């Protein structure tokens, strides 16, 4: 079965004194210019990466959080939103809208833990 894709959500811009760190992290994650990255911070909350693997999404979210921003990962199959490192179904049960958690491969892995 095909693995789902993930998105990285920027949920908070962080403190004003760490804004430059967040812009740098955002540039690193997205490849955008400093000017465009700074503009994105004015539009929080927003999706900064789409259709990436779980590892890429979690690394990007961790980088953003380390810079002082708020970041979460969202599974495109189930809509589950979770903190980097907790994995699908980590903080809350992963309940896809159209089927049980057992039907979602990432949730099944977290249920087996």
Structural features, described:
This protein is 35% helix and 19% strand. It is elongated and about 40 Å long. A four-stranded antiparallel sheet has the order 2-1-3-4, with helices on one face. The chain contains four helices and four strands. The longest helix is centred in the middle third of the chain and has 13 residues, at 54-66. It is an alpha+beta fold and 113 residues long. A hairpin with a 5-residue loop joins strand 3 (70-75) and strand 4 (81-82).
Principal-axes geometry comes out as: elongated
List low-confidence stretches: none
Strand tally, please?
4
SSE-based structural type: alpha+beta
User: What's the alpha carbon Rg, rounded to whole Å?
Assistant: 15 Å
Q: Provide the helix percentage.
A: 25-40%
Order of helices and strands: EHHEHEEH
Distance between the termini: 20 Å
Roughly what is the average pLDDT, rounded to an integer? Answer: 81
Number of helices: 4
Main pleated-sheet profile:
4 strands, antiparallel
Please list the strands of the largest sheet in the order they lie side by side.
Answer: 2-1-3-4
Strand content: 15-25%
Task: Name some characteristics of this structure.
35% helix; 113 residues
In short:
This protein is of the alpha+beta class. It is built from four helices and four strands.
């Amino acid at each position: 079965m095909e693995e789902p894709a993930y998105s990285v959500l920027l949920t908070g811009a962080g403190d004003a004194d760490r804004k430059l760190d967040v812009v740098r992290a955002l540039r690193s994650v997205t490849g955008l210019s400093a000017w465009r990255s700074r503009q994105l911070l004015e539009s929080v909350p927003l999706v900064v990466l789409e259709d990436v693997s779980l590892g890429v999404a979690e690394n990007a979210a961790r980088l953003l959080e380390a810079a002082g921003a708020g970041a979460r990962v969202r599974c495109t199959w189930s809509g589950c939103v979770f903190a980097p490192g907790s994995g699908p179904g980590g903080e809350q049960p992963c309940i896809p809208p159209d089927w049980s958690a057992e039907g979602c491969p990432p949730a099944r892995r977290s249920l087996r833990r």
